[in-house]
Amino acid sequence: RIGVKESVDICKSAGIKVVMITGDHPATAKTIASEMGIFKDRDLVVEGSEIKELRHKFFKEVSVFARVEPLDKEIIVRNYQKEDKVVAMTGDGINDALALKLANAGIAMGITGTDIAKETADMIISDDNFTSIEKGVRIGRGLFSKIRTIIYFFICLNIMEAAIFFGYEFYPGFDIFKSNWQHIYIFGIVHSLPSLALVVDTHPKDIMNEPPRNEEEILNKYMWLMLLIQAFLMGIGLVLAIELTRNGIIPLNGWNTNEFFQLSYIPHNTSHKELSDMKARTMFMTTLYIVETFFIWTIRRPNKSLIKSFKEEFSIILVIISLVTISLHILVIMFSYELNKSINETLGLNFQLNFMFLSATDWLICILL
């Protein structure tokens, strides 16, 4: 079939050993296996009558089993499993049923396969094409990588935010959320859009160059360590955004209080402390937006640097979502009071976001934090 040799080569680069098991003559089997890239120099061709006497250490050198009987297939599967290999077995006939049942993944042919083979197998290939197996492995690895990245993203953010929110519950004189609507904004918008970018992101191009996983945990010890370190560093940046603003180190300026920018509205009777707290919340939200947007770019390809990942696996969808995320937040903090007024007058809600417009210097500080 067209593309089989390429799929075999891809499987080998992914650490998957492809073995031919057939009832044909050894010479015929060897020729076909060579054309498909399965048989290489120094590989062994073993007949079914020799399998029982074949030592375990030589199994790794065999790429073709010829003149095989149904019971021989069982022996082959069990021997690979004794070496702690995860075995996938393909077959279409009644005599393949036992091996399909014993294998870690039994794969039956959908077109030529018998009913018994299909019922015994764990999955069925609808087109009877080996390339479908390679594509299935590629998709499976990509999904695992994406699930791992999304779980890493949310656990890291939740640990960081839980520590900050819990800590400020005992901090007198300041509430991170002035209203429930700000709470909804951070969890409904700030978290949703960056995580959506990870969902629609493409799979890594080199996913089939990685070695197989053997019952690997979604997050191993090294990833947990990196997760905690990143959560700590991001948390430090967010706390600094709040405290530096509240303590006047990042002072109020004319852009914040509408001396130069009149699109947003702040009541004239607002005290200096209320203005500082309002700016602190806005700096916190803005820094969090930037942190999450940058975070998705750093963890989408954990085995590559940010620059290399951006150059080699550029994703226009990821860029669009990142730009939309930041643009939406800019519009919200520019028109927060007009947004409050419009929604309250139209829907009769007590809608309160109450963010403050930030100057270019404020934005630069948020980016640096």
TrEMBL record:
This is P-type Cu(+) transporter. Keywords: ATP-binding, Copper, Copper transport, Ion transport, Magnesium, Membrane, Metal-binding, Nucleotide-binding, Translocase, Transmembrane, Transmembrane helix, Transport. Its main location: membrane. It is found in: Endomembrane system. The keyword Magnesium applies. It comes from marine sediment metagenome. The chain crosses the membrane at residues 150-171, 183-201, 222-242, 283-302, 314-337, 349-368. One of its GO terms (cellular component) is plasma membrane. InterPro entries: ATPase_P-typ_cation-transptr_C, ATPase_P-typ_TM_dom_sf, HAD-like_sf, HAD_sf, P_typ_ATPase. PANTHER family: CATION TRANSPORTING ATPASE, CATION-TRANSPORTING ATPASE PMA1. SUPFAM superfamilies: Calcium ATPase, transmembrane domain M, HAD-like. Residues 189-369 form the Cation-transporting P-type ATPase C-terminal domain. Its EC number is 7.2.2.8. GO terms for molecular function: ATP binding; ATP hydrolysis activity; metal ion binding; P-type calcium transporter activity; P-type monovalent copper transporter activity. It is a multi-pass membrane protein.
